[in-house]
Amino acid sequence: MNKVGKDDFVPGFVPKHNHGSVDYTSTEAGHVHQCLDVTSPPIPTQDGGHIHYTEGYVMFENGHTHYYKAYSGPAIPVGNGMHVHYYDFHTTEDDGHKHHVKGVDQPAPGTK
């Protein structure tokens, strides 16, 4: 396979790709945190699809931060040879509370 860029439309599965996302946590204790994320390369699933793993810290806010570890949902084709993944997770509890993060990551090449 030739080199594939982040904006290339490709049918099928593209190995070694990842996804980025920029989101905000739920509001807890009167504040939110920004969550800037880049996933792992794809992890094959038994049904022939794939998911991604991610972990990291949300941005420092209100005197503290939170850590998270999560897996995405399966690939969701969005047309034009691209796909996204849904994510839904909670951060660690710090400063007496935790945050909820959910959304869809940025599109990447491939339909599977």
UniProtKB/TrEMBL annotation:
Q: Where is this region: Disordered?
A: 93-112
For this entry, the protein name equals YmaF family protein
What lineage is this protein's organism placed in?
A: Bacteria, Bacillati, Bacillota, Bacilli, Bacillales
Q: Which InterPro entries match?
A: YmaF
Q: Which organism is it from?
A: Ectobacillus funiculus
